[in-house]
Inverse folding.
């Protein structure tokens, strides 16, 4: 089931991604493949939350704005939920489809980025029992790339 959206542009992007990724659980390789297809070299990849700042900075070198997805779990954990991240300069804009507090959700990642981040959403757009957070995370990035980071809050 999908939560109804007032934002038709976001819904259109999300429905398009369902054609590539299905509507259920997604894996990092699939998200990276589709992310790179749409965002080219601006899509850095799909990572665990213990990705290093050095890696992100190396991959984003020379690009003013980059996009990636992180899992709330570390690389030695099974993976449980995907988050969207836009890096613009030194600032990280993070979106959680459940609209939870980032400080308790990904504390290590926030320390890694030296707390230079902004939470880009205020309300949940995903049902608790659904497993389409990967598709939603990528849809947020495509929406942000098309309409601007400041419009992500409209989702």
């Amino acid at each position: 089931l999908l939560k109804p959206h007032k934002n038709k542009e976001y819904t259109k992007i999300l429905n398009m991604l369902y054609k590539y990724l299905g509507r259920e659980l997604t894996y990092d390789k699939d998200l990276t493949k589709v992310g790179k297809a749409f965002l080219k070299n601006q899509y850095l990849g799909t990572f665990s939350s213990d990705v290093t700042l050095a890696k992100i900075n190396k991959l984003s070198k020379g690009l003013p704005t980059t996009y990636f997805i992180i899992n709330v779990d570390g690389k030695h954990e099974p993976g449980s939920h995907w988050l969207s991240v836009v890096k613009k300069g030194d600032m990280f804009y993070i979106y959680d489809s459940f609209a939870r507090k980032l400080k308790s959700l990904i504390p290590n990642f926030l320390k890694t980025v030296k707390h230079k981040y902004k939470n880009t959403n205020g309300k949940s757009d995903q049902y608790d029992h659904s497993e389409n957070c990967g598709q939603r995370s990528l849809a947020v990035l495509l929406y942000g790339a098309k309409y601007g980071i400041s419009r992500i809050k409209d989702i």
Remarks:
- Residues 133-147 form the longest helix (15 residues).
